Queue: 2 jobs
Job 1
Amino acid sequence: TTKIHSVIERLGISPINPSWSTGKNDDINVSSKKITSVSPVDMQDIASVGVISDDDFEKVIRTAKAAYTIWRDIPAPQRGQVLRDFGDTLRKHKKDLGTLVSYEMGKSLQEGYGEVQEMIDICDFAVGLSRQLYGLTIHSERPNHRMYEQWHPLGIVGIISAFNFPVAVWSWNAALALVCGNVCLWKPSEKTPISAVVCQKLLSSVLQNHELPDGISNLIHGGAEIGSKMTNDSRIALISATGSTKMGKAVATAVAARLGKTILELGGNNAMIITADADLDTALPAAVFGAVGTAGQRCTSTRRLIIHEDVYEEFKKKLVGAYKQINIGNPLDENNHMGPLIDKDAIQSYLNTIEAIKTEGGSFLVEGKVFKPTELGSDTYVQPCIAEVDPSFDIIKTETFAPILYIMKYKTLDEAIQIQNNVPQGLSSSIMTLNLREAEVFLSHKGSDCGIANVNIGTSGAEIGGAFGGEKETGGGRESGTESWKAYMRRQTNTINYSKEIPLAQGIKFDL
Ligand code: NAD
């Protein structure tokens, strides 16, 4: 507690934080409706935020629109400088912010630091990108004409984020959106608003050092109702939403109704195929970290192991042995591998899923249970469990955001791939094999149908250099690396005639 209190003090968190924030603590109304962030680690209140009022929402949009006219005029490489400074600020505060993320969300301290590292990495990426927002030049079919395409910013980018990556997901979006010349409006998860308050303060201090106006980065608070207000507002050109598939369907419908743009990063149901040619010693830590890391609350958590019958029994034994060594407890204690689930609702869905597995006829190699470490006073800690299931079970087709691992047997690779693809989600996947043919089939068009397909590493822990996202009910969006930036810009095709004629395309004649 002393440690976390000094972190909170150093980060300058107030007991009550404003409902919207430019990062300074002035000129802000604190609405009567409040959200209090409670740490799942020990059930202590961290601080509160106000839910944005309708009037304040209008003020934020006005401020953001005004800021956009200034920000879009700044050359992209100069915008990159701002992101460079933000990355440096994050380097300075990595330990404190990482600790707060761990305390507010419940992930291990190492994972909290890792999340801030991801923010630093995306800032570096954005700096490079600021000189690489390339368009193509195209040969015109008309003589003495030049064609090219260029990319312009969209305006206000709305970011709706999930609780499990309270800061990294925002930074993937914000770093790219900003470098592309947009301004951002962020509504973090109502379960982790305080980490967001800190991010906003840090970025605002950088913007102020560059003598930039308020409104380039905006933070507002509230739950689904505020998210829905954003999605229905046509002044927000793009909504980038990360969360459950249920939320994604609501967002997609609302934004489509106004023909706006979306980036959707939704639920996963990720599988690892362990073939008879796998190196089981590497498969084991990859599977265990994938299943229990962040207490199974990553969109890329490994939820299903599809194991070849020849190595099934051997791997099962190794897995059960490894699960016995997992330390569960205070995530701020670096000896623990796994912290709590986010809240009581998460515990309930963990318990409901365990019941559903039993009802369908599954059996447990490691039984699940809820427990309450006496020294912490929180009852949101659970035992990660392993269930043996049949691929035909319904329950394994839904994502339960908890450390429940399903294991099942297969005979042929075609069958394994069919099992792996036979779920509505399509985020991450992996195959563990030393057999080149198996690996290549898995990566081919008839292999994994996911946005991420790995060989000999697990399903979680993506790097920011690659585009991140998934297919089917995962929503189809891509964030971070390669060409993801294009989703934050609008494309314009330009044709310039430097002749004295006015030839028409397709050889059409129109003589006057
Ligand atoms: P959630 O869907 O409950 O909430 C996510 C965000 O959406 C929150 O900010 C919430 O307030 C908002 N929201 C909820 N309903 C809304 C609506 N109708 N309109 C607008 N906004 C709405 O998700 P969660 O429990 O915070 O996060 C867990 C989920 O997120 C999991 O399904 C996980 O797989 C997914 N996730 C996906 C990715 C990815 O990149 N694919 C990354 C992280 C988490």
Job 2
Amino acid sequence: AKITYNHPDGSTYAVNANDPVSVMLAALVNNVPGIVGECGGNAMCATCHVYVRSDYLDRLPTMSDDEDEMLDGAAAQRTERSRLGCQIVIDDELDEIVVDLPPTQL
Ligand code: FES
């Protein structure tokens, strides 16, 4: 499974994950900058905010009310491509995703 993170400074980070993992956690364990993940993946902080590339948006599960509320309070502007990285799990069903990182998480 492959996760590609596009940083606002123009750099790109590609991470390969063998096991199901969230977009938030895969960034942290692979030292991808731009994701904080303060609450540890519980949809309670919005510091894992990402903009999902349109090709992949439709393939994601519907967002929960908690995720929806947290995104309203995200540090960077929310758009129709906004999701919480901790709520996106990359596994056999969704084996690839490309996200853009927001300019700030805090
Ligand atoms: Fe806190 Fe995703 S890590 S909301």
